């Protein structure tokens, strides 16, 4: 028979492992979502980034009520935000804050996709938001972080 303190330690270890898996997945996913914005025809560059994001902004504006200045401002900051937040989540720098901000980025991306009636993309982003919400619930079990919040 296992005593209560040993059972609690096992449960804490499982929660820590669950949070670590979520943190690694979400950090990598967010980081690579940002990096892929810099790619065009297999080449990564800042020029490609602004070309890709310009097309994205124009597409959102032409298919919705969102004005070009607003979609362009969002698009031009999106890749940088995703890279920074992904790296912070991955290595554990202010993890709860980074997770919350990444969740807001995914919600704002969902808003843009809702505006252009792209339901499949909204569903994919909803999964990310749900995973981030789960990670935030487990964030008190963040044992492996460079800079805890």
Keyphrases for this structure?
149 residues; mainly alpha; two-stranded antiparallel sheet; 2 strands; 77% helix; 3% strand; elongated
Word description of this protein:
This protein is mainly α. 77% of the residues lie in helices and 3% in strands. The protein has helices spanning 4-35, 46-62, 68-91, 95-115, 119-138, and strands at 39-40, 43-44. The chain has a two-stranded antiparallel sheet with strand order 1-2. Strand 1 and strand 2 (43-44) form a beta hairpin. Helix 1 packs antiparallel against helix 5 (119-138), helix 2 packs across helix 3 and helix 3 packs antiparallel against helix 4. The protein starts with a helix and ends in an 11-residue tail after the last helix.
Quick rundown:
The protein is mostly helical and 149 residues long.
Round the Cα radius of gyration to an integer and report it.
18 Å
Count of distinct strands: 2
Structural class estimated from helices and strands: mainly alpha
Query: How would a crystallographer describe the biggest sheet?
Result: 2 strands, antiparallel
Q: What strand line-up does the widest sheet have?
A: 1-2
Domain count: 1
Percent in helix: over 70%
How widely separated are the two ends? Answer: 37 Å
Shape, principal axes of CA atoms? elongated
Percent in strands: under 5%
What value does the average pLDDT take? 92
Unreliable sequence segments: none
> H/E element string?
HEEHHHH
């Amino acid at each position: 028979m296992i005593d209560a303190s040993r059972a609690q330690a096992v449960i804490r270890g499982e929660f820590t492992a669950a949070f670590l898996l979520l943190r690694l997945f979400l950090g990598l996913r967010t980081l690579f979502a940002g990096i892929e914005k810099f790619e065009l025809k297999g080449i990564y560059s800042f020029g490609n980034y602004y070309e890709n994001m310009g097309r994205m902004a124009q597409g959102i504006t032409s298919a919705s009520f969102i004005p070009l200045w607003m979609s362009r401002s969002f698009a031009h900051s999106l890749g940088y935000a995703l890279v920074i937040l992904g790296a912070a989540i991955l290595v554990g720098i202010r993890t709860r804050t980074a997770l919350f901000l990444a969740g807001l980025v995914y919600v704002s991306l969902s808003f843009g996709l809702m505006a252009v009636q792209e339901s499949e993309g909204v569903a994919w982003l909803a999964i990310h938001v749900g995973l981030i919400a789960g990670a935030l619930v487990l964030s008190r079990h963040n044992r492996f972080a460079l800079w805890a919040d």
